[in-house]
Task: structure prediction
Amino acid sequence: MSTDNLKDLQINPEQKQRSQRPFWIIVIVVLAFAGMALFLAQPWNPEKVRRMKGAGTAEASAVVSTNVVSNATAVSTNSTAAANDDKVLTVSGYIINRERIEISPRFLGQVKWIGVKKGDAVTNGQVVVIIDDTEYRARLAQAMGQLANAKAMMAKDELSYNRINQLAETHIESKQAQDDARLVLEADRAAVQAAEGAADVARTYLDWCTIRSPINGVVLEKLVNPNELVMPQSFGGSKGPSTALMAVADPKDLQVEIDVNEADLAKVSLGQKCRVSPEAYPDKSYGGVVAEIAPEADRAKGTLQITVQILNPDHFLTPELSAKVDFLKQ
Result:
């Protein structure tokens, strides 16, 4: 090949430089896009940091919460342990009214009116029942008439005595007539006193026809209705419609009656403080004190009856329901 042909095949250096420019442009464009990508990706790193920080905070909160729960559990456990440590004996019994009063008439009679029903609150002196008083009003009227008659006789005989007494001083009447007049007057005075007593008895029976509540409390049972015949309750007799009108008790005066095993009697003493928890509301507790220890044990059961007075009872305590009693250390 000739020299001229070789020269034709050679590339001009200027053309060679111009052919390298697109390559660098491409490189620059690629770098620019890479830089933009890095710039756009840069804000996601703080978010990760924030997420990591948030996760750390949550983990820290969880740790703190766990510690608090653990501490609370420990405190609760310690409180429960302390509560269990201050008791020496726990026995179950029944809530009772300290006094249950059954109101009964004083004589045979017919119920004319009754103004309460079961569950009603009553106050001391409140009229609750009225017995038919027709007979006793008539008896009072009769007694008052006899009293008036006795007073009239006494007034007449007193005038006679005064007259005879004056005549006896002038020796016109004898001493015997004077003494007879004086004795008649004394008999009249005794008759007046007896008539006054009879009037008081009739007035008392009339007053007994109006039956009042002897205490502030609640009606536990209503045993009669109007127009029923009632009679006095015999001592120690069984209750029933013919022996009592109603039963009342003070809901603020409650006790717990329990039977303590003879092996545990050494842990109980009169006046000992207690904690009472009704079985129906185990989350509630009331203060109490040993009020009575029975003087005689039950040989068959090997127990002794203990009565615990409840301090400041409320409506959550219902008589005849069961309750748990914790006897506390002295």
Summary: Helices lie at 3-9, 13-41, 44-85, 134-169, 175-208. Residues 44-85 form the longest helix (42 residues). The longest strand covers residues 87-97. The CA atoms of residues 41 and 134 lie 110 Å apart.
